[in-house]
Amino acid sequence: MWQAPEANSHNPTRFLATGLPSSSSHDQTFLRKLSTPYISSKASVQLPPFVNYSIDDVGQKATLSVIDKKSRDQRELWGTTRSYLQNHILGVSEGHTAILRLVGVGYRATIEPTAITVKPAYPSQQFVSLKVGYSHPIELGLPMGVKASTPLPTRILLEGIDKEVVNSFAATIRKWRKPEPYKGKGIFVNEETIKLKAKKIK
Fold first, then answer.
1. How is the beta sheet containing 186-189 ordered, strand by strand?
2. In 3D, which of 143, 138, 175, 179 has the Cα closest to residue 158?
3. Residue from 159, 117, 112 nearest 136 by CA
4. pLDDT digits (tens, 9 = 90+) for 80-123
5. Which class for 177: exposed (0-12), middle (13-18), buried (19 or more C-beta within 10 A)?
6. Is residue 109 within 8 Å of 142, Cβ to Cβ?
7. Distance in angstroms (rounded) separating the CA atoms of residues 175 and 196
8. Cα–chain-centroid distance for residue 110?
9. CA 62 to CA 19: how far, in whole Å?
10. Backbone phi, psi, residue 104, to 5°
């Protein structure tokens, strides 16, 4: 987990990260990226040229710093890089998830190995099949690196190492039936709620 930023007498612009997976590899000369193998795929974080990092393999800690602490642009991207790296570490060690709730009569979802309306984008791609009030099922291919399951017919659990990809796919599913404020029906992501409105009387 990331520790809070601490002032350092030698370099006050420094963040300390802990909890790096032991399988992490680092290469500061080739594309300046920090990457970690995860099953058959890799997640990587690109580092701006002015962001330096050091790895303590024994303590499994990473320290980020910037070249010019007075540069506003460097400080801003330094924080952004820290955030990306944090998500990377959490994604590899714990994984990111998104839970979708289907609220509506007859709404349900299944995970299918094949699709009728969509061609697979890569081998063994699975598909989320939605029945949310349309005359036909909505079929959506899972992005590479994202796993999906349906603990209940009205629940979809998305899992992956890339937080942005997981949340983006959850938003793609949601847009097929956005929550509406009169009957409270729709596809809700995580703890999303909606305030119901009174029906208009003519």
1. 146-149, 155-160, 96-103, 186-189
2. 143
3. 117
4. 777 777 777 777 778 889 999 999 999 999 999 999 999 999 99
5. buried
6. no
7. 19
8. 21
9. 9
10. 160, 150
